Amino acid sequence: MTTMEITTYPPLMLALEPYHAMLDFFAGHAWRPTPLKRGDGHPVLVYPGLGVSGAATTDLRARLLQLGYQVYDWEMGVSVWPLMGLDAWLAMLAGHLRKIHDAHDSPVSVVGWSLGGIYARELAKLHPECIRQVITLGTPFGGDFKIPKEQHAFPGLSAVAPLMDAALLTRLRELPPVPSTSIYSQTDGVVDWTRCIGPQSTLHQSVEVSGVSHFGMVHHPEVLRVISDLLAVPQHGRHS
Question: Could you tell me the domains of the chain?
Answer without folding.
Answer: 11-29+41-231 (3.40.50.1820)
